[in-house]
Design goal:
It is built from three helices and eight strands. It is globular. The protein is an alpha+beta fold.
């Protein structure tokens, strides 16, 4: 049995998140169907995390195990991307040691939230349009409180299977960018919902 990591990206607009859910279209479901068909064996894919409904991923790592074959070739990658819908792309597949895990071997995760002060056209699915200016200096003072916090129970869905609601926030800040703002947060993990 060989384990493979996969660097992929997706536009989550038409999906109920990453993880398989009954009677819902998810990214994991589409990936498993595509890989199973093209590799001619049942393939189960594990993602680095769970994204919620409508959330996009520009750099998402997942892994899967195979009994035979080598899906790391350029030809297989071309076939896979031709089969996948236009809102999912796989950039690279490579073999890793069997103990590597897309979720548990990850050191950190980063989320970006875009706010546009101009009505967006091509990025309308990826940013929130607001009117007026934000006080970035004052907002970043609040971000320092977030960075120093570890227990996020108040922000988490209750009664899940996680053992702790503690997270280590490594970076959190708002930045002004052309036509709007960017909120960036990086942590060792994020909690459900």
């Amino acid at each position: 049995m060989s384990r493979y990591f996969m660097h992929m990206a997706y536009d989550g607009s038409d999906y109920c998140g990453w993880q398989i859910q009954p009677r819902e279209k998810t990214v994991q479901q589409v990936m498993e169907k595509a890989l199973s068909l093209l590799l001619r064996e049942e393939v189960s894919v594990t993602g680095a995390g769970r994204t919620d409904t409508g959330v996009h991923a520009s750099y998402f790592i997942a892994h899967f195990d195979l009994k035979k074959g080598d899906p790391g070739s350029d030809q297989f990658l071309f076939k896979l991307n031709r089969y996948l819908p236009p809102d999912i792309v796989v950039h690279r597949i490579w073999q890793v040691p069997p103990e590597m895990h897309a979720r548990f071997s990850a050191i950190s995760r980063t989320y970006h939230y875009h706010i546009s002060s101009l009505k967006p056209l091509y990025t309308r699915n990826y940013s929130l349009h607001i009117f007026g200016e934000l006080d970035i200096k004052e907002i970043n003072r609040c971000c320092e409180i977030i960075r120093l916090t570890t227990d996020f129970t108040s922000f988490s869905k209750l009664h899940t299977d996680v053992k702790t609601n503690d997270c280590q926030i490594m970076e959190v800040q708002w930045k002004k960018e052309d036509g709007g703002y960017l909120f960036e947060i990086r942590a060792d993990r994020f909690l459900r919902n």
